[in-house]
Structure formats: C-alpha cells, structure tokens
Amino acid sequence: MKKSDFYYDLPPEQIAQHPVTPRDASRLLVMDRRTGALEHRIFHDVTDYLRPGDCLVLNDTKVLPARLFGTRTDTGSRVEFLLLKQKSADTWEALAGPGKKAKVGKIFDFNGRMRAEVIETLDNGNRILRFDYTGNFFALLDEVGELPLPHYITETLEDKDRYQTVYANVEGSAAAPTAGLHFTPELLERIRGMGVCVAFVTLHVGLGTFRPVKTENIEEHHMHTEYYSVPAETADAIRRTKAAGGRVIAVGTTCCRTLESVCRQAGKVCAHADETDIFIYPGYEFQCIDGLLTNFHLPESTLIMLVSAFCGYENTMHAYKVAVEEKYRFFSLGDAMLIL
After folding, report:
1. Residues 167 and 293 in one domain
2. Span 150-197, pLDDT tens digits
3. Cα(first)–Cα(last) distance of the chain, in Å?
4. Is the dihedral of CA 32, 179, 151, 329 positive or negative?
5. 8 A C-beta contact, residue 271 and residue 229
6. pTM of the model
7. Which domain does 114 fall in, by range?
C-alpha cells in the first residue's frame, strides 16, 4: 500500500490543544470492526462495551520532563536537548538543537542543578550526554526539565499532570500513551467492579512515534525501536482471559505493539522484556488483541496504518471521515475510538 492511501483532510481547529475536564468526558467513537458500524458516545460509556471476563491492558509508562535547556559553560550559548533513551546510569542519547553548538567535549549547565558533557555524536546526529549531578537524577530532572509536548500542540498545557495517565508509574517515555489519558481512578474502579481484569505493560514511547513515513511504499518504512516489558502477572492474566473465552482489549497502539511483539518473538504471551520495532499495517495477522481503544492519529502515520490493519482499511478511512464531519477532537489531547 501507499503512504498517500492513508491521507485525510483535517481542519486545524480540530487538533485538540487542551484536554477536556473531567478526563472521561471526551467523546468516544465506537466501531464494530466486522461491519464498520459506528456509534457516538462519551468516554465513560466504555463500560457499556466491556464484559465480565475481559482483560483491559494499559501502558503504565510515565513521561519524563525530557526537554532541557542547557547553557554552554565556555560561551554561554543556549542549546535545547531532548532526552531519548537512557544508555547507562548517567548517560543518555538526546536530540540537540542547534547541533553545531553541541560538539563533543562541550559542557552544558542546567540551572546550576546539574551538568552534562557531550561525549559522542551518533551517525543519525543524536548526541550522547554524560551527566554530572548530586542527588537523584530524576528528581533533578523534574526541577529543570519540561514535558516534551508534540509539535502540533502549540498552546501551553497549564496542568502538566494532564499529559500523564492517572496510573503512570515507570519513568522513561518521551511522549504519553495518549489513549490512557481518558481514564479516571473512579472509572477504572468501576471497570474492575464489573469483573474486568485491569492489567499493565510498559512501553516507553519514543519520539519516532511522531516521525513521518518518508517512503511512498509503506513496506519500505523502518520503525524506530522502543523498550517494552510484560510482567508475569499480566501474561498470566491474558492467558487466563483467552482460556476462558474473554477478550483482550489493548488501550493504545503502544499496548497493541507490546503484546503483538511478545507473540511474534515468543509465539505466545509470556513475561518478557526487550526492544521492539514491530510495524503493523494492513495484512498483519493479530495474535493477541481482540479490541483496541485508541485516539485519532495523524494522516499517513504508522499509527493510522496499525488501526487499519486491525479493523480494515475501508472501515478506518470511513470512520475518520465521519469523525472529521462530526467535529471530533484529534490527536494526543483529543477524543477516542473503541474498536471491537
């Protein structure tokens, strides 16, 4: 298939710049993937579509305040860094801009709280930084860093907690697993009370999520890698759900990619931690998930391709056309879609 097959027109005013309050008051487009039939609901109505014995799988990653502004100690030049991946206790891979001011050997100060030296420039232009600090690195990062909001969010997010899920627990993401932003603690308790198992995986979302597909033939696109972990209790819960005839519903493309990666590598869902570069597009045969809860994704993105693989290309493009016509709010802070 071609990248252009996944294009759709979206008025800029439908790109959500702020979340709704409360979290579960966003809109929910529900699709029957067998027929393509659509229903328009509110997110808290998700309980109408869950059954006792289902397993709802969520990504408990936590977004790092990974956007840092450093001052070069020799010239006073300001450089923006975006931490991408922890390489060791004190070293990180990062984007740097302007890169010409972040050469190997240069040292940067971050508000007097910590310093970093550029120790390597990678082939892709990213830098390896070695940090020098006293105390807990992540606590200091909370002091000096900012949340790296997607480029299409141009307004200030006053409450930074709204770009974290209420169950965020494991630090490491450069972006939020946005399908989970709609849940409240009360809604999760109501879901558990229905006899639905709520289980967690971890996938640290990388900035590759926002990188465009540059090849017209989508099969020539190479995915970025992301770290994931499936704990034993989640693997056991999924196996029990499947054995009893229940459904496994992934909250977000990150959970979908995690579960499908495990099945692809191990042949079944099991406790596992690794990195994945799985690329799911139409023609892919799903091995684990039976339902998908997700936000609306950018045109021509790998994420809309994943959705199309799950519920069918025609169903997907029709649903997006309807969502635009019905003025749903799109992307990270926007509305949601439940596909069963």
Report:
1. yes
2. 889 999 898 989 999 999 999 999 899 999 999 999 999 999 999 999
3. 24
4. positive
5. no
6. 0.92
7. 67-144
